[in-house]
TrEMBL record:
Pfam families, per the entry: MIF (PF01187)
InterPro entries per the UniProt record, alphabetical: Macrophage_inhib_fac (IPR001398), Tautomerase/MIF_sf (IPR014347)
Designated name of the protein: Uncharacterized protein
Lineage: superkingdom: Eukaryota
Similarity-based family: Belongs to the MIF family.
């Protein structure tokens, strides 16, 4: 599951974040070659951030993917995400930095298997827990 996490010092109040998320999702999916259903985009605004010694609009991103990344794809992703941020959030392309992590399946799958195992525990699966119970489990389809 590719995950693009973007932090920016731009205030997102009044911004159509849905269009940013949608465009970023389709861009990442297309360039990495994975279905949109597997892509996650996280966008955080109003993050205290300085770039080049100033607090002018800037952004930092990290993209984690199991495969699909290489020098050519990374270059295309950087340019495409920078275009989205410049168009939608008025962040100059020169004030955006994107870091890539090409992870291995076993590094992400262990967590998914753990969640799946929890879902299989009869005492937790489908159980109505009292409101004072300190944990809330929301386990989706894996």
């Amino acid at each position: 599951m590719p995950c693009l996490n973007i932090s920016t010092n731009v205030n997102l109040e009044g911004v159509d974040t849905s269009s940013v998320l949608s465009e970023a999702t389709s861009t990442v999916a297309k360039l990495i070659g994975k279905p949109e259903a597997y892509v996650m985009i996280v966008l955080k605004g109003s993050v205290p951030m300085a770039f080049g010694g100033t607090e002018q609009p800037a952004a930092y991103g990290e993209l984690v993917s199991i495969g699909g990344l290489n020098a050519d794809v990374n270059k295309k992703l950087s340019a495409a995400i920078a275009d989205i941020l410049e168009t939608k959030l008025s962040i100059p392309k020169s004030r955006f930095f994107l870091k890539f992590y090409d992870t291995k399946a076993h590094q992400s799958q262990e967590y998914a298997q753990c969640l799946h195992a929890l879902h299989q525990v009869p005492s937790l699966a489908g159980m109505d827990l009292p409101s004072e119970f300190p944990f809330h489990f929301t386990i989706g389809h894996l």
